[in-house]
Amino acid sequence: MDVARSALSKAEPTHRGGPLCRFASIADQSTMPRSSTARTRLVESAGARIHASSYATATVEDLCADAGVQKGSFYYFFPSKRDLALAAVDDQWAGTRATILEPAFAPDVKPLERIARFFRAVADRQRGDVVLGCPFGNLAAELGTQDPVIRDRVREVFGGYQAYFEQALREAAADGCTKLRETDVPGVAQALLAYFQGALLLAKTRNDATIIDSLADHAVNLVVGTYREKEPA
Cβ distance 71 to 115 under 8 Å? Predict the structure, then answer.
């Protein structure tokens, strides 16, 4: 599945809901037979647990307990933990698009303002007792040298982020807000993606989501400022 084109736990400490923080805990549900919701529960609880801890420490037993399903149901839906993790990535990406990217990049403000609004929306979702960072970036950092399948799926997600940046930059150039040339757009969008991931890592390291807020305007000024239109004489 091409995630970029197709849009692609713990109960404590508390967090605001959202795909860039954590999903609601499902750990207290009683064990249930296979049902139409069992797969969904597995996917959502896996996203939450892996984001809050790591892929390596999330055992099949833990994932089943979180979702309230038996191990037989796990293997009915997913041949392996990796397959569940891939499904969780797809689910988190769909949620990220719907609740963060689409609202942030809506055309009700100028294109460059959408980029800053995106950073602030992410900061808002990261607020809590513990800043969890980017679920996709976390996976890439953990498994990038070990599992090429998961690495490639995360790469597709990053491509999806970059596509939003590229669209905003192209619209800014078309509106005369910047002096960007078409050939500049992919490189500047990639720089914005790198800046975004760095902001999340820094916020996670310092356990302070306000860092992402403070870098919102700098993301535009530092990366796009070189291409701003000249002030009128």
Answer: no
Instruction: Decide: 180 and 83 in contact? Cβ < 8 Å.
Output: no
DSSP state of 182: G
Summarize pLDDT for 184-206 with one digit per residue, the tens: 899 999 999 999 999 999 999 99
Give, rounded to a whole angstrom, the gap between the first and last alpha carbons of the chain: 51
| The two structure tokens encoding residue 54 | 């790591």
Check if the beta carbon of residue 187 is closer than 8 Å to that of residue 223. no
Domains of the chain: 3-227 (1.10.357.10)
Q: Are 98 and 119 in contact (CB under 8 A)?
A: no
> 69 - beta bridge partners?
32
Do 219 and 196 form a contact (C-beta atoms < 8 A)?
yes
Residues 224, 219: Cα–Cα separation, whole Å: 8
Its pTM stands at: 0.81
